[in-house]
Amino acid sequence: MKIYVVRHGETEMGKNRLIASKIEPLNKGGKIQAITTGKKVKQLDINIVFSSPIKRAIDTLNLFNLDKEIPVFIDKRLEERNMGIYEGVSFGDLDWKEFWGYDSEKKYSDLESMKSVYERTSVFLNDIIEKYHDKNILLVTHGGVKRAIDWYFNGIDSSLLECENGKIYEYDIE
Fold it and tell me: Which residue blocks in the chain are alpha helix, DSSP H?
């Protein structure tokens, strides 16, 4: 079993180094990223797709133009963390490592903690691994959830911050 994870394409807020709102759409570059990534995704042996219900993730998935025979499920557990009062805040105004760290609620109490994101992501991953253990799965999601997926497979480590828009990340499950 393989799990492939793609963070949605670029947004204008992300490009301008601002925390994106839930309604932030893909920008032109993000649409191009999604089309380019979609060509690579089509070369993978994907049996099932799960996506965040947030529009930029769904738009990214739609731009992949995958085979209509592949089942697609929308799952709220793949939503980006609730940023609360931090939507629209400049990256430079945040302690980035702390903001995305497992214990982020210590300093950033007015948003969903990464611990909470990790817990819901872990439940989701346990569910799909148990149910679809013989399938290859594509997840289309967001930066915070992708970090939580890294922690699930590699242990909780707040230095694991890599999460590029439109990049395919692969996890092998034995």
Answer: 12-15, 28-41, 55-64, 96-99, 114-131, 143-154
